[in-house]
Amino acid sequence: MSTREQLLPYGRILRYQLHERLTHWAAALSFIYLMLTGLAFYSPWLFWLAIAFGGGQISRTLHPWAGLIFAGAVLYMYVMWARQMRTTAADKAWWSSIGHYIRNEDDQMPPAGRYNAGQKLLFWGFVVCGLLLLLSGLILWFPEYIPWNLRFLRYLAVLVHASSALLAIGFFMIHVYMSVFAERGAFGSVIRGDVSIAFAKRYHPGWYKEIVGQSSTPRK
Amino acid sequence: MSQETLRIQKISGHAGTVPGEDAQREFTVCKLIDATTCIGCKACEVACMEWNDLPFGETVFDNTYQTMPETRWNFWNLILFNEHEREDGTLMWLMRKHQCMHCAEPGCLAACPSDGAIVQYTNGIVDFQQEHCIGCGYCITGCPFDIPKMNPKTNRVFKCTLCADRVGEGLEPACIKACPTGCLHFGSKEDMKVLAEGRAKQLRDHSNFPNAGVYDPPGVGGTGVMYVLHDATQPELYGGLPKDPSIPWTVKLWKGPLKWLGNLAMVGGLIGLFVHYLRFGPKSREEEFEGKHEGERP
Questions:
Q1: Residue B44 · residue B175 · CB < 8 Å
Q2: Taking the model in full, what pTM does it have?
Q3: Which CATH number do you get for residue A94?
Q4: Which of A92, A104, B151, B202 pairs with B288 at a CA distance of 20 to 30 A?
Q5: Burial annotation B125-148 (CB, 10 A radius, 16+ → b, else e)
Q6: For position B290, what pLDDT does the model report?
Q7: Is residue A128 included in any domain, yes or no?
């Protein structure tokens, strides 16, 4: 989606369409529930989280269903965005100047497209973790139906589920930090869908050029 | 043995110390099953269902004398029948009373995430507290003996309690009381060890079972249920009794190092992000994007 229809009045650019925003929030809200109830089952010191969500039994019953919502949302994201998330030559240059990015020297970063290389890594991280969590989660959902001679699947699933969840929580923390605290304007883009031209020029100059390049008659 | 034996020494999914831990000197109880004198009468199966008021379920015929292929959430005590042909062509008909082994280091308790759903009393009995069970089934994964079984209707897990209610009152478990041949014994772990070793020696010295021995696997810290076997070198012959059972290594890794590494990484990550914000702050201020460019048209 890079057309002149993305140029909105008052110097704003449409970054996420409604269905993209809805998918994002289906994934985000289910992930937060999954993370908090999952942490309750992960450590006795956090079991109070399960109590806060209505008790251990309710948390255990709803956790896998929330997992299906999350998996469905991630699958839809994959269909929407996988093509845009392919690694390009510019991404390698982006990674080699990651130090500038960390020090907020964004003017010294190679220009990014709709997504920079870091965002692409988060996307693929969530896709891979989501797949691992889904597969291991299905085994953990119905352990009593795994035959005794296939018990190694259960043994594997507990380890895979916990480690991929920890990895996903790491990605989640970076994602929330970047979008809520570091890049002002990013959070609004996933609520109302638009960003300012200054935001687009600063963080996604490649994407901005794509849009204005196709825009011969700016909308009033 | 008094009701005080039902003091708890290990709690599943519990943050902090166990109240009452080490407050009492108590001996560990043990059930000894002499598989060499079991006649497969199934009196223990009936006694177990009677005492625990377990509902009658359908039996399953699978061309053996077994009541059903494996234990169920409401059938905790099962005699396994196995026909074994020895090298000299003679037949051995092996019977083993299969139930919870009441491990000293229980895999179910280690895997359980719910505070107080699985406890170990100071007398060694491992007991499920269904009102705290959340139905996750992690205990099924932690157990090397395939013992915990889920009630699909209530989503709670059940197993043999070693008749903790009877033992607390100074009685023996119901199965022990029902056994007609005296192949089941109950007492302190120390006493049962002496009894078991004596019987194994008798089998070796006088009954032509040179490999007779006691099953008390050290991989789970020893068990609260021991067996005397004709051939202790091949426990698998007795309906798949594992030779060297232990808590699965993935469960140990998951509940051990992974937990501490994960906690460290999560706390470290939060601190790292916070420090980054204090050091570098946001990449831009809202005002840079709002207002200044308002009205600008591309």
A1: yes
A2: 0.90
A3: 1.20.950.20
A4: A92
A5: bbbbbeebbbbbbbbbbbbbbebb
A6: 58
A7: yes
